[in-house]
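Lab notebook, bench 4. Still working through the backlog of constructs that have no structural model yet. Next entry is a single chain of 534 residues. Request: give me the structure tokens for it.
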Amino acid sequence: MLKLDPTHPRHNLIVRWLRIGLALLAGAGAALVHPPFGFLPGLLGYPLLMLLAERSSTARGAFWMGWLAGFAYFFIGCWWVAEAFLVNPDQAWMAPFAASLLPMGLGLFWGVVTVLYRRIAPAGVHRVLVFAACFALLEWLRGHVLTGFPWNPAGAGWKAGSAMSQFAAVAGVYGLGFVTVAAVSALGLVRGPEPRRDRIGGVAVGVLVLAALWIGGAVHLARAQLQFTDTLVRIVQADVPQESKWTPEAYQGIVDRYVRLTARPGDRLPDVVIWPEGALPATANQVFAAGSPDGIAIAQALQPGQTLLVGLGRGEADVTVEGGARYFNSLFVLHDEGETGLRITGIYDKHRLVPFGEYLPMGRLMSRLGVRSLVHVPADFSAGPVPAPIDVPGAPPAQPLICYESLYPGFTPGAQGRPGWIVNVSNDAWFGRTSGPLQHLNLASYRAIETGLPVVRATPTGVSAMIDPWGRIVADKRLESGQSGVIDALLPQPAAITLYGRFGDLLFWLAVVAGLVFGAVRHRSQPLNLRDQA
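Model written out:
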């Protein structure tokens, strides 16, 4: 790293600001790896962060290096959340706080990474495994603590469907992240106290691991044989901006748009039609009420034998709760049975809810403090049961994942009880034409790779797509942000059961535990001791 004259009167100040800049650069580089940027040199942010942690003279210094890097990473990766607050002009003042407070909080995980690594890192080139284990452990915790927010884990920096992404079928996205961080961090061994021979060997191993990921993934994709079922699916994307949904004048036009696209003639009558989450600015109680003109219009758009999947909120009476009712974010399965009309054959209630969006954490306390009125959550949604497949007339059983449930590995059975496909309905209209919907598509596609199942993704404004079991978009079956139309596509057949589907995160945990135990044991005999230097 850059050598500075320690006798210079401003030496300490220069070093401090240099480190701050390098920490921000490390996090920003790692963030730019993710879609839509795809800046692969940004992977060097991980070894840079490792070196900054090693050269911190105190645990506090190591923490701030990690926190700054994490802030930059999540600010670039999650700035789009501010877009949701711009939909309602009354909430626009909250946008800057949302864009800054979220990365400030998530950056704490990276701060713990660097402190933990500094505490147990042993001398020798093997310390890169300890750094990767620390990082992977905190990635997993970020995806689980307080319901978790597993947005843009390190492994998802590889574009879903690429050769590098296929290792997720073996160890999941967290396991892919461990291997990725370990391999690229080995490049940081070019600077270190070890003998030159050891450092060159460590760098070579890191390069070989990356090459093995690419070769193994390329061979896996070359052997993949995409086959299709007889089920024709129609994905409806009406392109209704979120800010345009809530006026009485707009409502009927939205219904008409979805109905028209559903009934659009095609080469063949679709077996299953999918509308996204929040397709209509109304509850299921209103839409399916007896004599509702909207329910009648939907029924008229379908033909006998067709099935409609639609995401709607619903309420049900419950005298045991405050207010006498419970509310759910649900996916309805509607089947046209001909003379007997449209029948609800299944309902899936969203299990993993969005904090401050669908429920208010510590609701009573927050309400007393006035937070509920600020975030405009008049009543909390209730969480549904643990996700499980549902029957879909005219198609194989499906695993519904509503909105950001698609971020979570393990919600879909990967072996026993595995469904035939995953249906992900999401209301990404809240985030406009930002990087958010593109990253969400990439993350949802990893569920296909992990399970070997196709994913059908429907959103109001994009990106909607048919995704094959290897995480690739099928042919041109994709509607971009701002496009209105339908995707008619045969549902792909599942691939073979994956190792991740059989064993889940087992391989990931074996790697993490081994790395942490190895670091703790080696640290006792050979602690890493690098002088504070720029």
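Notes after review: Residues 233 and 272 are 5 Å apart (CA to CA). The first helix runs from residue 11 to 31. Flag for follow-up if needed.
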